[in-house]
Write a structure and sequence with these properties.
This protein has about 260 residues and is of the alpha/beta class. It has two domains: about 5-200, Vaccinia Virus protein VP39 (Rossmann fold); about 210-255. It is built from seven helices and nine strands, in the order ββββααβαβαββαβαα. The strands form two sheets. It has a five-stranded parallel sheet with strand order 7-6-5-8-9, with helices on both faces. A four-stranded antiparallel sheet has the order 1-2-3-4. β1 (about 20-25) and β2 form a beta hairpin.
């Protein structure tokens, strides 16, 4: 955690300013281990492995914790970067362009492994904060710690530890996974300054009826109950079949 992040943080319980109570470990300009304290209510929040922690999965609702754990597993195991991320990101945020980020205070709701946080920082954001509830923050911090204008925070979107200082907030593929997407949207919007902007991309019902009708029952009744590591191994065979079909049947047929 960079010390300048304190200027943007607020106690998620009372809204009071936070101060650095102490730091037991630094690496260059990052506080790796330490404690934040609220000036108003005196609650304390730990900094662990470079990330301020405002949420404990053991103390939140079971459905939120399960979702966070599942996505956290994915983001800590699939940390690779891809040159396609930039175009995908802009596609989800249309009509936003890279130059829109320049000089702005940015907040990302649900940063996963930090790929979009990293892009926002590279596109000239004054400061960008990516937050997530799960263990993906570990990968996100590793991916962005070298960037002077990027910050990662672990917190619950329904209890955000931020001041209302942001010019632009965005969330890609996250809000529909929360227990109350509308409430989550308003929580994110509450941290955007008057006259600011917000983008949110969620799954669409249109043209996805086959997923809700056939895939969702399998996911809810079977795959969601399987250990992530085992599920990953089981997924390799159908994934290989789909890849081969796409490469040698679907794509050649469409090119012809």
């Amino acid at each position: 955690m960079k010390e300048k992040l304190l200027e943007m943080l607020a106690c998620p319980i009372c809204g009071g300013d936070l101060l650095l109570a102490y730091a037991s470990k630094y690496e260059e300009k990052e506080i790796i281990e330490g404690v934040l304290s609220c000036k108003k209510c005196e609650r304390e929040y730990r900094i662990i492995r470079g990330v301020p922690r405002f949420a404990d999965l053991a103390k939140i609702d079971e459905d939120k914790a399960e979702t966070a754990e599942n996505f956290g597993w994915q983001w800590t195991h699939f940390t690779q970067d891809d040159e396609k991320y930039s175009d995908q990101f802009l596609g989800w945020l249309q009509p936003v362009k890279p130059e829109f980020f320049e000089g702005k205070m940015i907040l990302e709701g649900g940063c996963g492994k930090g790929r979009h946080t990293k892009l926002a920082a590279a596109w000239g954001a004054r400061e960008v904060i990516g937050f997530d509830l799960g263990d993906g923050v570990e990968s996100a911090f590793a991916a962005t710690r070298c960037l002077p204008n990027a910050h990662i925070v672990q917190c619950d979107i329904f209890k955000l530890p931020f001041k209302r200082v942001f010019d632009y907030a965005f969330s890609v593929g996250v809000l529909h996974h929360t227990p109350d997407p509308q409430k989550a949207f308003h929580a994110l919007a509450s941290k955007v300054k008057k006259g600011g902007h917000l983008s949110a991309w969620v799954y669409g019902a249109e043209n996805n009826e086959w997923i809700t009708k056939y895939i969702n029952p399998i996911r809810e009744g079977f795959t969601s109950r399987i250990n992530q590591s085992i599920l990953y191994q089981l997924s390799k065979l159908p994934t290989l079949s789909l890849f081969l079909t796409t490469k040698f049947v679907y794509r050649p047929a469409n090119i012809a």
